[in-house]
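Chain A, query sequence.
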Amino acid sequence: MPSVDGKIIAGELARMVDEAVARPATEVTPRAVSITQGTEASTVYTLADVRAIVEVARARRLWVHMDGARLANAVARLGGTPAEVTWKAGVDVLSFGATKNGALTAEAVVFFNRELAQTMRYRRRRGGHLFSKMRFLSVQLDAFIKNGLWLRNARHANAMAQRVREGLAKIPGVRFPSPTEINLVLVALPQPIWDGLVAEGYSFSRRGALKEGVIRIACAFDTTEEAVDALLDTARRYAGRGA
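Chain A, predicted structure.
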């Protein structure tokens, strides 16, 4: 779907679903809407955003799924409770991920609508997501949630991303295509800075068209201030070259 800063817009969702329902009966009609919280563009859906999407979905008998691979980062940003940003806002099913916040291959599927959970045991097996000794992976979630570790990890990662953005923003020619609300920084770097960082051993994943030159810098639970400052120092060193 089209998006603004990585987020589905409720009005556009309504239009596209209505158009899909009006098509011939030979085509598949929508049954659910899935939103990613926080997004790949480093933005978060506000409570108002989620409620607006839920309203559209309910009016059209769609279920609402939330991809929460970065839910911790979103909760840390929004400052609300996990309940407020999920089931209290109308979400039916949540994929609660821990891998992007310090755990190893751990994820829980949480059904706030219990009716939808009835076939999950079968689907989990059929999809190959039931492993021998899986309890050793799942037990990570106990330590992850206990005493708020998951949110402490997320707050730190978010703060490191802000440190990256604030440092790069002081360099002439650096451009940001979207806000930095969680632990990701999308940024377009002048070519001398790009070349210098690559020469120094940094590697990046591109986002969007190659001509836009946008890369993603991800900060994690274990990213240190020293590592961020080293990146910024290197960027500043190459900023004036090739001008």
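The first strand starts at residue 32 and ends at 36. The mean pLDDT is 92.
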